[in-house]
Amino acid sequence: MDKFEQTNVEFEQAVAECRALFQKKLHDYGASWRILRPTALTDQLFIKAKRIRSLEIKQESLVGEGIRPEFIALINYGIVGLIQLSRGFSDTVDVSNDEAMVLYDKYAHEALELMKRKNHDYDEAWRSMRVSSYTDLILTKIQRIKEIEDLQGQTLVSEGIDANYMDIINYAVFGLIKLKVEK
Fold first, then answer.
1. Is the pTM above the cut of 0.85?
2. Could you report the per-residue pLDDT of 150-181, keeping only the tens digit for each?
3. What ranges in the chain are assigned the alpha helix state H?
4. Of 81, 72, 68, 92, whose CA–CA distance to 42 is shortest?
5. Are 149 and 162 a contacting pair, CB within 8 Å?
6. Which of 139, 177, 140 is nearest to 16 (CA)?
């Protein structure tokens, strides 16, 4: 198996772990996230990424959960963000759990395909990066989303919010892979 195939397998395994948790939460809560407006979703991504950075710096968790669950949350909320962008937010839960899983799979697949293209062009550069760099890049992407939201999407030359969500998902997957390898 070449290095690109290995990355694809690791990516798919990481997303499968995230998908399993997403499906369990759907069982417990339904698609309650459909109510989130874009800015609230951005803030949810922010607190997850900020917690990772805090744990990286402090090297201690008083809550008892580590960095790994936060990367999983970033992936799942990133996919929720893509769903919300495509459908708009709702005042009620307007998708079934089965529909939510179909949408989840659609955007997880799109993230995988984007990663494959970028990984080819960047030649596995992510493997030489530190996990803390993924955290900082994710925080940067979230800040960009906030700026785009403040501009009501009226950017001059920048990628849209969807591209930033995709990058957040992919950096978080790389974080999960690296944390698993570094154990």
1. yes
2. 999 888 999 999 999 999 999 999 999 999 86
3. 3-29, 38-58, 67-87, 97-122, 131-150, 161-181
4. 81
5. no
6. 177
Distance CA 170, CA 12 (A): 11
The answer to whether 171 touches 138, Cβ cutoff 8 Å, is yes
Cα torsion angle, 176, 160, 147, 124, sign = positive
Q: Are 15 and 79 in contact (CB under 8 A)?
A: no
Is it the case that residue 61 has pLDDT exceeding 80?
A: no
Output DSSP code: residue 129: S
Alpha carbon 85 to its chain's center: 14
Dmax (CA) of the chain: 47
User: Which spans in 30-96 are helix H?
Assistant: 38-58, 67-87
DSSP SS3 for 124:
coil
Q: What is the pLDDT of residues 6-46, one digit of tens each?
A: 999 999 999 999 999 999 999 999 999 999 999 999 999 99
What is the C-alpha to C-alpha distance for residues 38 and 7, in angstroms, rounded to an integer?
31
